[in-house]
UniProtKB/TrEMBL annotation:
Similarity field: Belongs to the glycosyl hydrolase 16 family.
Organism: Microvirga alba
One family name in Pfam for this protein: Glyco_hydro_16
MF GO annotations: calcium ion binding; hydrolase activity, hydrolyzing O-glycosyl compounds
Domain of life: Bacteria
InterPro entries documented for this protein: Beta-glucanase-like, ConA-like_dom_sf, Glycosyl_Hydrlase_16, Hemolysn_Ca-bd, Serralysin-like_metalloprot_C, T1SS_VCA0849
GO biological process, alphabetically ordered: carbohydrate metabolic process
Domain (GH16) ranges: 1-257
SUPFAM superfamilies linked: beta-Roll, Concanavalin A-like lectins/glucanases
Protein name stated in the entry: Family 16 glycosylhydrolase
Amino acid sequence: MSINPNKLSETAILTFDENFNVFSYWNGKAGTWDTGYPWTVANGGTNEGNGELQWYINANYAPTAGLGTYSANNGIMNITAAPTSAAAKSYINGYDYTSGMITTFHSFSQTYGYFEMRAKLPAGQGLWPAFWLLPTDQSWPPEIDVMEVIGSAPNTLETTVHYDSNGHKMDNKSATVQGMTTGFHTYGVDWERDKITWYYDGQNVHETATPVGLDKPMYMLANLAVGGSWPGAPDNSTNFPATLEIDYIRAYKEGEAAPTQSGPVLIPAPIPTGQKLFSLPASAASKKTINGTYGWDNLKGTSGHNRIDGKEGRDTMKGLGGDDTYIVESRGDKVVESANGGIDTVRTDLASYKLTAHVENLILTGKGDQAGIGNELNNRITSNGVGDNTLSGGAGNDILFAGRYADVLAGGPGSDQFVFKNAPVRAGHVTDFTVGVDVLDLRGLLADYQGENPVADGRLSFSDNGSGDTIVKARSATGTVSTITTLDKVTTNQLHANADYFWA
């Protein structure tokens, strides 16, 4: 049965309702709205594939948090685009414009249903407001564009579905409507198993069969882009600051009655389904070894896969295009890599080491406690297995390999994977596990388990420690119970099999 946007109380059940009485942004642990794509880094991001000229501001990034990109006033959410001041450019990678994006990646997703935004759009050359849906598993396509308008064509409403994972196909329709930049109007899409229907102020403006592949949970996005291959760049006629004004964003599923709610609601709280185990490449085996002396050496690799060992002294080690492995033994050692210079690894026995730019992987090799810190890339960081190590992932989607002692793991921003291959002698903590984003990889720990539910079979357990944290324990095939780790500030009822933790 289709949802009728003009009779929602009779045909639909409300599952998400944001009226923007306040702006609740995701701070890494709680909040409704992410301010950027799931893969963006700490200071924000953009969509280079579209050639966009703006930098989407991350509300959590202190140097740009005061720019006024996001504000909620009198129940209206304002997303404002503006030219970048000279003082702010160094914080946003030199982009000429700032703007905003809000998404429900961490807070809400749904397969099928009706999604609606009521908003007033900005007009002007180079402006590009949109309300759209993307899959939580971060695949593309599919994509459903509930609405897009380019500011130089303020009376043309674009509605589109992108599909076909083997390429890229799209079904698009342009509808001529009036008043989108002078008043508030509703933009909706009814996504069903067999068809997708777009609405403007409750009127059908586009309908098509649901393509293959549009059968997975999707989250909502609303943004105001500036420039790009489609709208073109702003010019002297563009009035800044330009603001996308949103009255509400709502989602519904099929049903007979919608409960009335106030404030952001998620009914019911969704079970995370987007997470999955992933892998990151290790460096290839070295073909050539380059050794330093006991002095201060300047070592250069070849275009192949090198092992570069500076030995004693403060050495500068520079790779070229291959997968390079650097042996860092002195605090004065300097590793120099360039972008797209292969998959590189640092092996170090230093008490503390932070990966330099363009180096992906870090392996701790000391005989005691060490700290390993990632960078903005997707990092593999491996404990030495014999000390109480601290592994910090940084801004990317990282994989942290715990050892046999009380390792403290922090993935940082991004979707991170915490790997426990063996039961530790003493357990540590995961300090920032984010439900619905991060995952526990317990495959090595439960490699001998052949059942379908290790919790039900007593091989795995999650318990509350009385302080709001979750203790993870595993029982071996011989009956030995070991504490694996503690997930700080995570409750047991938040965790879901094959979403937040995996064993096979």
